[in-house]
Design goal:
By secondary structure, this protein is α+β, with helices and mostly antiparallel strands. The protein contains 13 helices and 26 strands. The strands form eight sheets. A seven-stranded mixed β-sheet has the order 3-12-13-19-16-15-14. A five-stranded mixed β-sheet has the order 23-22-24-25-26, with helices on both faces. The chain binds adenosine-5'-triphosphate.
Length: 442
Protein backbone atom coordinates (compact mmCIF):
# COMPACT_ATOMS: atom_id res chain seq x y z
CA UNK A 1 0.00 0.00 0.00
CA UNK A 2 1.33 3.49 -0.82
CA UNK A 3 1.78 5.67 2.26
CA UNK A 4 -1.06 8.13 2.83
CA UNK A 5 0.34 11.60 3.52
CA UNK A 6 -2.66 12.56 5.63
CA UNK A 7 -4.57 11.22 8.61
CA UNK A 8 -8.35 10.98 8.34
CA UNK A 9 -8.73 13.39 11.27
CA UNK A 10 -6.95 16.10 9.33
CA UNK A 11 -9.28 15.73 6.34
CA UNK A 12 -12.35 15.74 8.58
CA UNK A 13 -11.07 18.89 10.32
CA UNK A 14 -10.30 20.64 7.03
CA UNK A 15 -13.73 19.71 5.68
CA UNK A 16 -15.42 21.21 8.73
CA UNK A 17 -13.24 24.33 8.99
CA UNK A 18 -13.33 25.27 5.33
CA UNK A 19 -16.96 24.39 4.66
CA UNK A 20 -16.74 21.16 2.66
CA UNK A 21 -18.63 18.74 4.92
CA UNK A 22 -20.43 19.32 8.23
CA UNK A 23 -21.88 16.69 10.57
CA UNK A 24 -25.64 16.83 9.98
CA UNK A 25 -27.88 18.39 12.66
CA UNK A 26 -24.76 19.36 14.56
CA UNK A 27 -26.56 21.78 16.90
CA UNK A 28 -28.55 18.74 18.12
CA UNK A 29 -25.43 16.64 18.58
CA UNK A 30 -25.38 15.20 15.05
CA UNK A 31 -27.38 12.33 13.59
CA UNK A 32 -25.97 8.85 13.02
CA UNK A 33 -23.25 9.27 10.42
CA UNK A 34 -25.16 11.73 8.25
CA UNK A 35 -23.41 14.71 6.73
CA UNK A 36 -24.27 18.00 5.07
CA UNK A 37 -22.25 19.44 2.20
CA UNK A 38 -21.28 23.06 2.82
CA UNK A 39 -20.51 25.88 0.35
CA UNK A 40 -17.27 24.27 -0.89
CA UNK A 41 -18.44 20.66 -0.57
CA UNK A 42 -21.49 21.27 -2.71
CA UNK A 43 -19.29 22.78 -5.44
CA UNK A 44 -16.80 19.93 -5.30
CA UNK A 45 -19.42 17.17 -5.21
CA UNK A 46 -21.17 18.79 -8.16
CA UNK A 47 -17.84 18.86 -10.01
CA UNK A 48 -17.29 15.15 -9.36
CA UNK A 49 -20.75 14.40 -10.78
CA UNK A 50 -20.26 16.78 -13.71
CA UNK A 51 -16.90 15.19 -14.57
CA UNK A 52 -18.57 11.76 -14.58
CA UNK A 53 -21.51 13.01 -16.69
CA UNK A 54 -19.13 14.73 -19.10
CA UNK A 55 -17.10 11.58 -19.69
CA UNK A 56 -20.10 9.21 -19.75
CA UNK A 57 -22.77 11.20 -21.58
CA UNK A 58 -21.32 14.32 -23.19
CA UNK A 59 -18.17 12.83 -24.71
CA UNK A 60 -19.77 9.55 -25.78
CA UNK A 61 -22.47 9.18 -28.35
CA UNK A 62 -23.75 5.82 -27.20
CA UNK A 63 -25.02 6.87 -23.75
CA UNK A 64 -28.14 8.84 -22.77
CA UNK A 65 -29.23 10.16 -19.38
CA UNK A 66 -32.05 9.39 -16.97
CA UNK A 67 -33.36 10.67 -13.65
CA UNK A 68 -35.75 8.10 -12.20
CA UNK A 69 -37.85 8.37 -9.04
CA UNK A 70 -36.35 7.51 -5.65
CA UNK A 71 -39.70 6.14 -4.43
CA UNK A 72 -41.11 3.55 -6.77
CA UNK A 73 -43.30 0.48 -6.83
CA UNK A 74 -42.20 -2.22 -4.33
CA UNK A 75 -42.69 -4.65 -7.22
CA UNK A 76 -39.43 -3.31 -8.65
CA UNK A 77 -37.49 -4.47 -5.56
CA UNK A 78 -39.28 -7.77 -5.45
CA UNK A 79 -38.39 -8.54 -9.06
CA UNK A 80 -34.81 -7.29 -8.77
CA UNK A 81 -34.15 -9.64 -5.87
CA UNK A 82 -33.46 -6.83 -3.38
CA UNK A 83 -36.33 -7.77 -1.05
CA UNK A 84 -34.96 -11.29 -0.72
CA UNK A 85 -31.23 -10.78 -1.16
CA UNK A 86 -30.14 -7.24 -0.35
CA UNK A 87 -29.04 -8.18 3.13
CA UNK A 88 -25.96 -8.02 5.31
CA UNK A 89 -25.24 -10.58 8.04
CA UNK A 90 -25.95 -8.92 11.41
CA UNK A 91 -24.57 -10.10 14.75
CA UNK A 92 -25.28 -8.67 18.21
CA UNK A 93 -22.84 -8.59 21.09
CA UNK A 94 -24.80 -9.98 24.07
CA UNK A 95 -22.43 -8.22 26.44
CA UNK A 96 -22.35 -4.57 25.25
CA UNK A 97 -25.36 -4.78 22.87
CA UNK A 98 -23.36 -3.32 19.95
CA UNK A 99 -24.26 -4.59 16.43
CA UNK A 100 -21.78 -5.62 13.77
CA UNK A 101 -21.59 -6.90 10.21
CA UNK A 102 -20.43 -10.49 10.57
CA UNK A 103 -18.38 -10.28 7.36
CA UNK A 104 -16.40 -7.35 8.82
CA UNK A 105 -15.33 -9.28 11.96
CA UNK A 106 -12.17 -11.33 12.00
CA UNK A 107 -11.16 -14.43 13.92
CA UNK A 108 -8.51 -13.63 16.55
CA UNK A 109 -5.56 -15.92 15.74
CA UNK A 110 -4.63 -15.97 19.46
CA UNK A 111 -7.71 -17.99 20.49
CA UNK A 112 -9.44 -18.80 17.20
CA UNK A 113 -12.56 -16.85 18.26
CA UNK A 114 -14.41 -13.78 17.02
CA UNK A 115 -14.40 -10.93 19.54
CA UNK A 116 -16.67 -7.89 19.76
CA UNK A 117 -14.50 -4.98 18.49
CA UNK A 118 -15.95 -2.73 21.22
CA UNK A 119 -15.86 -4.75 24.45
CA UNK A 120 -13.84 -7.82 23.44
CA UNK A 121 -16.56 -10.30 24.45
CA UNK A 122 -16.91 -13.53 22.47
CA UNK A 123 -20.60 -13.80 23.40
CA UNK A 124 -21.99 -12.91 19.97
CA UNK A 125 -25.30 -14.03 18.45
CA UNK A 126 -25.50 -16.12 15.28
CA UNK A 127 -25.50 -13.97 12.14
CA UNK A 128 -28.96 -13.20 10.76
CA UNK A 129 -29.85 -11.59 7.44
CA UNK A 130 -30.72 -7.90 7.79
CA UNK A 131 -32.33 -6.16 4.80
CA UNK A 132 -30.64 -2.83 4.06
CA UNK A 133 -33.59 -1.16 2.38
CA UNK A 134 -35.29 1.76 4.16
CA UNK A 135 -38.98 1.02 4.47
CA UNK A 136 -41.61 3.74 4.48
CA UNK A 137 -45.29 4.23 3.61
CA UNK A 138 -46.61 6.04 0.56
CA UNK A 139 -49.85 7.84 1.44
CA UNK A 140 -51.64 8.48 4.72
CA UNK A 141 -52.45 4.89 5.68
CA UNK A 142 -49.67 2.81 7.20
CA UNK A 143 -50.59 -0.72 6.21
CA UNK A 144 -49.03 -3.51 4.16
CA UNK A 145 -50.56 -2.10 0.97
CA UNK A 146 -48.79 1.24 1.34
CA UNK A 147 -45.27 -0.09 1.98
CA UNK A 148 -42.62 1.54 -0.20
CA UNK A 149 -38.83 1.55 -0.16
CA UNK A 150 -36.24 4.24 -0.71
CA UNK A 151 -34.08 2.98 -3.57
CA UNK A 152 -30.86 1.30 -2.37
CA UNK A 153 -29.21 1.93 -5.76
CA UNK A 154 -30.11 4.12 -8.72
CA UNK A 155 -30.04 1.07 -10.99
CA UNK A 156 -33.41 -0.63 -11.60
CA UNK A 157 -34.68 2.82 -12.72
CA UNK A 158 -32.59 2.12 -15.82
CA UNK A 159 -34.07 -1.36 -16.32
CA UNK A 160 -37.72 -0.49 -15.80
CA UNK A 161 -37.29 2.36 -18.32
CA UNK A 162 -35.42 0.21 -20.84
CA UNK A 163 -38.24 0.23 -23.40
CA UNK A 164 -39.07 3.91 -22.86
CA UNK A 165 -35.47 4.89 -23.53
CA UNK A 166 -35.03 2.47 -26.42
CA UNK A 167 -38.13 3.82 -28.17
CA UNK A 168 -37.52 7.52 -27.55
CA UNK A 169 -33.75 7.76 -27.98
CA UNK A 170 -33.55 5.58 -31.10
CA UNK A 171 -30.42 3.93 -29.67
CA UNK A 172 -29.57 0.31 -30.33
CA UNK A 173 -27.24 -2.01 -28.41
CA UNK A 174 -24.47 -1.39 -27.59
CA UNK A 175 -25.80 1.68 -25.77
CA UNK A 176 -26.01 2.91 -22.21
CA UNK A 177 -28.23 4.76 -19.76
CA UNK A 178 -26.51 6.97 -17.19
CA UNK A 179 -27.99 8.21 -13.95
CA UNK A 180 -26.75 10.16 -10.93
CA UNK A 181 -28.72 10.43 -7.71
CA UNK A 182 -29.29 9.66 -4.07
CA UNK A 183 -29.48 6.13 -2.77
CA UNK A 184 -30.27 4.91 0.73
CA UNK A 185 -29.03 1.88 2.66
CA UNK A 186 -29.69 1.15 6.29
CA UNK A 187 -26.02 0.23 6.83
CA UNK A 188 -25.35 -1.70 10.04
CA UNK A 189 -22.03 0.02 10.60
CA UNK A 190 -21.72 3.32 8.74
CA UNK A 191 -18.42 5.08 9.29
CA UNK A 192 -15.06 6.33 8.10
CA UNK A 193 -16.53 9.79 7.53
CA UNK A 194 -18.47 9.85 4.21
CA UNK A 195 -17.04 6.50 3.04
CA UNK A 196 -20.08 4.61 4.31
CA UNK A 197 -23.24 6.55 5.07
CA UNK A 198 -26.92 5.65 5.04
CA UNK A 199 -27.74 8.34 2.48
CA UNK A 200 -25.27 8.81 -0.37
CA UNK A 201 -25.00 9.63 -4.05
CA UNK A 202 -24.28 7.21 -6.84
CA UNK A 203 -23.26 7.56 -10.47
CA UNK A 204 -24.38 4.48 -12.38
CA UNK A 205 -24.26 3.40 -15.99
CA UNK A 206 -26.17 0.42 -17.36
CA UNK A 207 -24.67 -0.49 -20.71
CA UNK A 208 -26.81 -2.80 -22.87
CA UNK A 209 -24.97 -5.04 -25.33
CA UNK A 210 -25.61 -8.03 -27.59
CA UNK A 211 -25.12 -11.11 -25.33
CA UNK A 212 -21.96 -12.33 -27.05
CA UNK A 213 -20.30 -8.92 -26.57
CA UNK A 214 -20.66 -8.94 -22.75
CA UNK A 215 -17.08 -9.99 -21.88
CA UNK A 216 -15.58 -7.51 -24.37
CA UNK A 217 -17.54 -4.58 -22.96
CA UNK A 218 -16.78 -5.64 -19.39
CA UNK A 219 -13.06 -5.27 -20.16
CA UNK A 220 -13.72 -1.96 -21.93
CA UNK A 221 -15.50 -0.47 -18.91
CA UNK A 222 -12.95 -1.72 -16.39
CA UNK A 223 -10.19 0.09 -18.32
CA UNK A 224 -12.26 3.23 -18.96
CA UNK A 225 -13.29 3.64 -15.37
CA UNK A 226 -9.85 3.10 -13.89
CA UNK A 227 -8.49 5.72 -16.32
CA UNK A 228 -11.18 8.24 -15.29
CA UNK A 229 -9.87 8.46 -11.72
CA UNK A 230 -6.25 8.67 -12.88
CA UNK A 231 -7.04 11.35 -15.49
CA UNK A 232 -8.59 13.47 -12.75
CA UNK A 233 -5.41 13.38 -10.72
CA UNK A 234 -5.47 10.34 -8.44
CA UNK A 235 -1.92 8.91 -8.50
CA UNK A 236 -1.95 5.48 -10.16
CA UNK A 237 -0.25 3.80 -7.18
CA UNK A 238 -3.29 4.76 -5.07
CA UNK A 239 -5.65 2.94 -7.46
CA UNK A 240 -6.12 -0.70 -8.33
CA UNK A 241 -8.62 -2.94 -10.08
CA UNK A 242 -9.55 -6.04 -8.08
CA UNK A 243 -11.56 -8.93 -9.48
CA UNK A 244 -14.12 -10.45 -7.08
CA UNK A 245 -13.61 -14.00 -5.87
CA UNK A 246 -16.48 -16.29 -7.00
CA UNK A 247 -17.94 -16.41 -3.44
CA UNK A 248 -18.03 -12.58 -3.27
CA UNK A 249 -20.17 -12.15 -6.38
CA UNK A 250 -23.65 -10.64 -6.03
CA UNK A 251 -26.64 -12.78 -6.94
CA UNK A 252 -26.89 -11.17 -10.40
CA UNK A 253 -23.23 -11.04 -11.40
CA UNK A 254 -21.24 -13.16 -13.85
CA UNK A 255 -18.10 -11.19 -13.00
CA UNK A 256 -17.28 -8.08 -11.00
CA UNK A 257 -14.16 -5.98 -10.61
CA UNK A 258 -13.84 -3.13 -8.15
CA UNK A 259 -11.88 0.06 -8.64
CA UNK A 260 -10.21 0.45 -5.25
CA UNK A 261 -8.47 3.40 -3.63
CA UNK A 262 -5.74 3.34 -0.99
CA UNK A 263 -7.70 4.80 1.94
CA UNK A 264 -5.80 5.53 5.18
CA UNK A 265 -7.19 2.26 6.63
CA UNK A 266 -6.48 0.10 3.55
CA UNK A 267 -7.85 -0.59 0.08
CA UNK A 268 -11.52 0.34 -0.24
CA UNK A 269 -14.04 0.25 -3.11
CA UNK A 270 -14.81 3.37 -5.14
CA UNK A 271 -16.74 1.63 -7.86
CA UNK A 272 -17.95 -1.82 -8.84
CA UNK A 273 -18.03 -2.88 -12.48
CA UNK A 274 -20.32 -5.86 -12.92
CA UNK A 275 -21.38 -8.09 -15.77
CA UNK A 276 -25.08 -8.40 -14.83
CA UNK A 277 -25.84 -10.52 -17.91
CA UNK A 278 -29.58 -10.54 -18.74
CA UNK A 279 -30.56 -11.04 -15.08
CA UNK A 280 -32.39 -7.74 -14.56
CA UNK A 281 -34.24 -7.43 -17.86
CA UNK A 282 -35.40 -11.05 -17.62
CA UNK A 283 -36.46 -10.67 -13.99
CA UNK A 284 -38.51 -7.53 -14.73
CA UNK A 285 -39.99 -9.10 -17.86
CA UNK A 286 -41.08 -12.17 -15.90
CA UNK A 287 -42.56 -10.12 -13.05
CA UNK A 288 -44.28 -7.45 -15.15
CA UNK A 289 -45.34 -9.55 -18.13
CA UNK A 290 -43.79 -6.92 -20.46
CA UNK A 291 -41.18 -8.19 -22.92
CA UNK A 292 -37.90 -6.34 -22.38
CA UNK A 293 -36.06 -7.21 -25.57
CA UNK A 294 -34.39 -5.66 -28.55
CA UNK A 295 -35.48 -6.48 -32.07
CA UNK A 296 -32.61 -6.19 -34.51
CA UNK A 297 -34.16 -5.36 -37.89
CA UNK A 298 -30.89 -5.89 -39.74
CA UNK A 299 -30.66 -9.56 -38.73
CA UNK A 300 -34.35 -10.07 -38.00
CA UNK A 301 -33.52 -11.42 -34.54
CA UNK A 302 -34.87 -10.66 -31.10
CA UNK A 303 -32.74 -10.86 -27.98
CA UNK A 304 -32.46 -9.76 -24.35
CA UNK A 305 -29.37 -7.58 -24.10
CA UNK A 306 -26.69 -8.26 -21.51
CA UNK A 307 -25.74 -5.44 -19.17
CA UNK A 308 -22.39 -4.14 -18.01
CA UNK A 309 -22.73 -1.86 -15.00
CA UNK A 310 -20.06 0.55 -13.77
CA UNK A 311 -21.54 1.75 -10.42
CA UNK A 312 -19.63 4.46 -8.58
CA UNK A 313 -20.25 6.46 -5.41
CA UNK A 314 -20.07 10.25 -5.84
CA UNK A 315 -19.71 11.09 -2.15
CA UNK A 316 -17.12 8.36 -1.53
CA UNK A 317 -15.20 9.43 -4.64
CA UNK A 318 -15.17 13.06 -3.50
CA UNK A 319 -13.50 11.90 -0.30
CA UNK A 320 -10.90 9.95 -2.28
CA UNK A 321 -10.11 13.06 -4.36
CA UNK A 322 -9.63 15.06 -1.13
CA UNK A 323 -7.33 12.43 0.37
CA UNK A 324 -5.26 12.05 -2.79
CA UNK A 325 -4.90 15.82 -3.24
CA UNK A 326 -3.87 16.67 0.32
CA UNK A 327 -0.26 17.78 0.59
CA UNK A 328 2.05 19.84 2.75
CA UNK A 329 5.14 21.71 1.55
CA UNK A 330 7.16 24.78 2.43
CA UNK A 331 6.75 28.19 0.87
CA UNK A 332 9.00 31.10 1.91
CA UNK A 333 10.21 29.15 4.93
CA UNK A 334 6.64 28.47 6.12
CA UNK A 335 4.72 25.22 6.03
CA UNK A 336 1.59 25.31 3.90
CA UNK A 337 -1.29 22.91 3.34
CA UNK A 338 -2.28 22.53 -0.28
CA UNK A 339 -5.00 20.52 -1.99
CA UNK A 340 -3.58 19.62 -5.38
CA UNK A 341 -7.03 19.06 -6.90
CA UNK A 342 -7.58 18.76 -10.64
CA UNK A 343 -9.14 22.02 -11.96
CA UNK A 344 -12.31 20.14 -12.93
CA UNK A 345 -12.75 18.88 -9.37
CA UNK A 346 -11.59 21.92 -7.33
CA UNK A 347 -14.49 23.92 -5.82
CA UNK A 348 -13.19 27.16 -7.35
CA UNK A 349 -11.04 27.34 -10.45
CA UNK A 350 -9.98 30.95 -9.88
CA UNK A 351 -9.74 33.34 -6.93
CA UNK A 352 -9.87 37.06 -7.66
CA UNK A 353 -7.93 38.95 -4.99
CA UNK A 354 -7.73 42.74 -4.96
CA UNK A 355 -4.58 43.76 -3.09
CA UNK A 356 -6.51 46.16 -0.89
CA UNK A 357 -10.11 47.05 -0.15
CA UNK A 358 -9.69 50.54 -1.64
CA UNK A 359 -12.54 51.50 -3.92
CA UNK A 360 -10.28 52.25 -6.88
CA UNK A 361 -9.17 48.58 -6.85
CA UNK A 362 -12.65 47.17 -6.18
CA UNK A 363 -13.95 48.55 -9.47
CA UNK A 364 -11.32 46.85 -11.62
CA UNK A 365 -11.38 43.68 -9.48
CA UNK A 366 -15.13 43.43 -10.07
CA UNK A 367 -14.50 43.88 -13.78
CA UNK A 368 -12.04 40.93 -13.69
CA UNK A 369 -14.53 38.86 -11.68
CA UNK A 370 -17.29 39.60 -14.21
CA UNK A 371 -14.95 38.58 -17.03
CA UNK A 372 -14.14 35.18 -15.49
CA UNK A 373 -17.38 34.22 -13.71
CA UNK A 374 -19.44 33.21 -16.77
CA UNK A 375 -16.76 30.57 -17.56
CA UNK A 376 -15.40 29.54 -14.18
CA UNK A 377 -16.47 29.24 -10.56
CA UNK A 378 -14.63 32.14 -8.92
CA UNK A 379 -14.01 33.13 -5.34
CA UNK A 380 -13.63 36.80 -4.46
CA UNK A 381 -11.72 37.69 -1.32
CA UNK A 382 -10.52 41.11 -0.22
CA UNK A 383 -9.93 40.54 3.48
CA UNK A 384 -6.60 39.90 5.30
CA UNK A 385 -3.06 40.05 3.93
CA UNK A 386 -2.45 38.74 0.43
CA UNK A 387 -0.13 36.01 1.79
CA UNK A 388 -2.88 34.64 4.05
CA UNK A 389 -5.38 34.77 1.24
CA UNK A 390 -3.03 32.74 -1.00
CA UNK A 391 -2.68 30.15 1.82
CA UNK A 392 -6.44 29.93 2.16
CA UNK A 393 -6.89 29.34 -1.56
CA UNK A 394 -4.09 26.72 -1.50
CA UNK A 395 -5.85 24.93 1.33
CA UNK A 396 -9.15 24.71 -0.57
CA UNK A 397 -7.44 23.70 -3.81
CA UNK A 398 -8.01 26.75 -6.05
CA UNK A 399 -5.59 26.25 -8.98
CA UNK A 400 -5.20 29.95 -9.91
CA UNK A 401 -5.29 33.25 -8.06
CA UNK A 402 -5.59 36.54 -9.95
CA UNK A 403 -4.33 39.56 -8.03
CA UNK A 404 -5.41 43.08 -8.85
CA UNK A 405 -2.95 45.70 -7.52
CA UNK A 406 -2.30 49.44 -7.85
CA UNK A 407 -0.19 48.93 -10.99
CA UNK A 408 -3.29 47.39 -12.59
CA UNK A 409 -4.82 50.88 -12.64
CA UNK A 410 -1.90 52.05 -14.79
CA UNK A 411 -1.02 49.04 -16.97
CA UNK A 412 -4.36 47.13 -17.16
CA UNK A 413 -2.50 43.95 -16.19
CA UNK A 414 -2.96 41.49 -13.30
CA UNK A 415 -0.80 38.84 -11.61
CA UNK A 416 -1.67 35.16 -12.00
CA UNK A 417 -0.36 32.88 -9.25
CA UNK A 418 -0.15 29.13 -9.75
CA UNK A 419 -1.22 27.05 -6.72
CA UNK A 420 1.28 24.22 -7.21
CA UNK A 421 4.44 26.09 -8.21
CA UNK A 422 3.45 29.40 -6.48
CA UNK A 423 4.99 31.06 -9.55
CA UNK A 424 3.55 34.47 -10.47
CA UNK A 425 3.32 36.11 -13.89
CA UNK A 426 1.89 39.38 -15.10
CA UNK A 427 -0.83 39.15 -17.75
CA UNK A 428 -2.83 41.91 -19.50
CA UNK A 429 -6.55 41.82 -18.63
CA UNK A 430 -7.29 41.67 -22.38
CA UNK A 431 -5.56 38.25 -22.58
CA UNK A 432 -6.61 36.95 -19.13
CA UNK A 433 -9.43 34.67 -20.20
CA UNK A 434 -7.23 32.96 -22.79
CA UNK A 435 -4.35 32.57 -20.31
CA UNK A 436 -6.64 31.07 -17.64
CA UNK A 437 -8.17 28.70 -20.20
CA UNK A 438 -4.79 27.42 -21.35
CA UNK A 439 -3.50 26.97 -17.78
CA UNK A 440 -6.62 25.14 -16.55
CA UNK A 441 -7.03 23.14 -19.72
CA UNK A 442 -10.79 23.79 -19.61
P1 LIG B 1 -19.66 -1.99 0.02
O1 LIG B 1 -19.08 -3.34 -0.27
O2 LIG B 1 -18.63 -0.94 0.35
O3 LIG B 1 -20.83 -2.00 0.95
P2 LIG B 1 -21.16 -2.31 -2.39
O4 LIG B 1 -20.29 -3.28 -3.11
O5 LIG B 1 -22.38 -2.77 -1.70
O6 LIG B 1 -20.26 -1.44 -1.37
P3 LIG B 1 -22.30 -1.20 -4.72
O7 LIG B 1 -23.64 -1.75 -4.46
O8 LIG B 1 -21.45 -1.81 -5.78
O9 LIG B 1 -21.51 -1.10 -3.36
O10 LIG B 1 -22.48 0.37 -4.99
C1 LIG B 1 -21.69 1.07 -5.92
C2 LIG B 1 -20.93 2.19 -5.25
O11 LIG B 1 -21.78 3.01 -4.45
C3 LIG B 1 -19.84 1.74 -4.28
O12 LIG B 1 -18.66 1.41 -4.98
C4 LIG B 1 -19.64 2.97 -3.44
O13 LIG B 1 -18.80 3.93 -4.07
C5 LIG B 1 -21.04 3.54 -3.37
N1 LIG B 1 -21.65 3.15 -2.09
C6 LIG B 1 -22.28 1.99 -1.80
N2 LIG B 1 -22.72 2.00 -0.53
C7 LIG B 1 -22.36 3.19 0.00
C8 LIG B 1 -22.54 3.80 1.28
N3 LIG B 1 -23.20 3.20 2.26
N4 LIG B 1 -22.03 5.05 1.47
C9 LIG B 1 -21.38 5.70 0.47
N5 LIG B 1 -21.19 5.17 -0.75
C10 LIG B 1 -21.67 3.94 -1.00
Amino acid sequence: MPAMPVEMDEIVRLCKQRGFVFPSAEIYGGFRSTYDYGPLGVLMLRNVKNAWWRSMVQLRHDVVGLDAAILSSPKVWEASGHLANFTDPLVDCRSCKERWRADHLEVDPADGKVHCPKCGSTDLTEARAFNLMFKTHAGPVEDEGSVAYLRPETAQGHFVNFLNVLQTSRKRPPFGIAQIGKSFRNEITPGNFVFRTREFEQMELEFFVPPEEGPKWFEHWCAERLAWYADLGIPSDMLRLRAHEPEELSHYSAGTSDVEFAFPWGWGELEGIANRTDFDLKAHAAASGVKLEYFDQATNTRYVPHVIEPAAGATRTMMAFLLAAYDKDEVGGEERTVLRLHPRIAPYQVAVLPLSKKETLSAVATEVLDLLSPQYMCDFDETQSIGRRYRRQDEIGTPLAVTVDFDTLEDRAVTIRDRDSTEQVRVPISGLLEEVRSRLGM
